[in-house]
Amino acid sequence: MTLYDLANPTRFLKLVKAVLPWLIVATVAALAVGLYFAFFVAPEDYQQGQTVRIMFVHVPAAQLALMCYAMMALSSIGSLVWKHPLADVSAKASAPIGAAFTFLALFSGAVWGKPMWGTFWVWDARLTSFLVLLIMYLGIIALWKAIEDPIKAAKVNAIITLVGVINVIIIKFSVEWWNTLHQPPSIIRADGPAIHSSILIPLGLMALAFVLLFVTLHLMSMRNEIMRRRIRAMRMRAASVAPAASSSTVTKAAPAGAR
Amino acid sequence: MSWMKSLFVREYQLANRVGGGALIGVLFFLAVVTIFPFGVGPDMILLSRIGAAILWIGALLSTLLGLDRLFQADREDGSLELLVMSGRSLELVVLIKCAAHWAATGLPLVLATPVLSLFVGLDFQSIVLVTLTLLVGAPALTLVGAVGAGVTVSMRRGGVLLSILVIPLAIPILIFGVSAATAGAIDSNNFLVPFLFLCALTLFGLVIGPLAAAAALRVSGD
């Protein structure tokens, strides 16, 4: 089965239906194991005490926030270049999930920052770029909602998403140049990770659990979006079959049909 | 070449004549700069320290204010369709429209900057730096703004959404613009490094802006 076969929504829905129960089970299991390790196995930090456990939510959430944007950007390329209908759906489905994870990363960071840095918020490079990322996500969601025609909305969103990719990179560097306080990358480095394995393993487990959570949510959200589009198409068909005669039943669909 | 010139002249004249023209933007710029002292207090020392930032933010807001008319007026009277179907490169059309728009609304802002600088107590050196950075950086604001304008062109009231979409794109420009403007001396590295970054962003906008805006206009052209 290639990506082109998946363009058929019915086939895609069938696949989702088959895969989703397993994914949910795997997500719950990974979250349970990850949280167990994070709360009971990982040692507390000699400086930060118990609060270091916030990291096990904070880091995977931040990582997913970026992953969602990458997903959205790839889908945007798909919908601009190959005009793949599922790519539109995928891009649309990613935006709210990404916004939620960005918010989670900011929120857990603020909660962690209060005991550690003594403040909920500082205008540090990485915090600032995540705040900007959140604004971009919310702007994109607003743009999706503002344009009624789904195909047009998809293309316009794809353009702004791809410009946003370049912008995210520029923002990252310019903001770092502007002000930084956050700790430098400590997992992916040239000379090996700077974190002890007793923390790295739970962190990896949590990262895996979050990725599974993302895939599950994304597939569910895509399924819902396909259903929503079918309902929209049915309404438009109903509106065109029964014009004006039974105006009470078609009033809802009328604005959609008029365009 | 002649079609480019006539398009530029048309856009420039329309921008100047419709809706108050260039002066409205400058007036808004003046209003923004005026309300700052009411917010932070009439402390000249504080104002001169944040003066460059006030001027940059004022210019950014004034630019955002005028952007929603960049393509929308043309869409309403149908001339946008004609431009899309004219067979000319739409990217070039967008670039010319941006240039005319900037000449009509951005350039007056730059020209007003030295006068407004006096209100926030900048010294001569800082006035030169702010004006210079705005001269180089303001076109970038218009160019990335064109992307937002193209994307929201089909919306009846897209102005607010346009601003929300464009402000993240304008953040790097603002960072480098303000830090070059507050560097203090024109021959120091403190000025040169962010200033060159600012130039790079403008050149960057020169490519990305017309490409993305033209793509968005093609989509919205039904």
Automatic annotation (TrEMBL), chain A:
Origin superkingdom: Bacteria
Keyword Endoplasmic reticulum tagged: no
Pfam families, A to Z: Cytochrom_C_asm
Main location: membrane
Domain Cytochrome c assembly protein: 5-182
Subcellular location, record wording: Cell inner membrane; Membrane
Membrane topology qualifier: Multi-pass membrane protein
Segments crossing the lipid bilayer: 20-41, 61-82, 94-113, 125-144, 156-175, 195-220
Transmembrane helix is among the record's keywords: yes
This protein's UniProt keywords: Cell inner membrane, Cell membrane, Cytochrome c-type biogenesis, Membrane, Transmembrane, Transmembrane helix, Transport
Matches recorded under NCBIfam families: ccmC (TIGR01191)
General function of this protein: Required for the export of heme to the periplasm for the biogenesis of c-type cytochromes.
Family as reported in the entry's similarity comment: Belongs to the CcmC/CycZ/HelC family.
Name of the featured protein: Heme exporter protein C
The organism's taxonomic lineage, starting at the top: Bacteria, Pseudomonadati, Pseudomonadota, Alphaproteobacteria, Hyphomicrobiales
Name of the gene encoding the protein in the UniProt record: ccmC
Automatic annotation (TrEMBL), chain B:
InterPro entries to which the protein is assigned, alphabetical: Cyt_c_biogenesis_CcmB, Cyt_c_CcmB_bac
Parts of the chain that traverse the membrane: 21-40, 46-71, 92-120, 126-153, 160-186, 192-217
Stored Pfam families: CcmB
Entry keywords, A to Z: Cell inner membrane, Cell membrane, Cytochrome c-type biogenesis, Membrane, Transmembrane, Transmembrane helix, Transport
Main location: membrane
Coiled coil (UniProt feature): none
Subcellular location per the Swiss-Prot or TrEMBL entry: Cell inner membrane
Organism domain of life: Bacteria
Cell inner membrane recorded as keyword: yes
Topology within the bilayer: Multi-pass membrane protein
UniProt similarity note: Belongs to the CcmB/CycW/HelB family.
Protein function: Required for the export of heme to the periplasm for the biogenesis of c-type cytochromes.
This protein's name: Heme exporter protein B
Provenance organism: Pseudovibrio ascidiaceicola
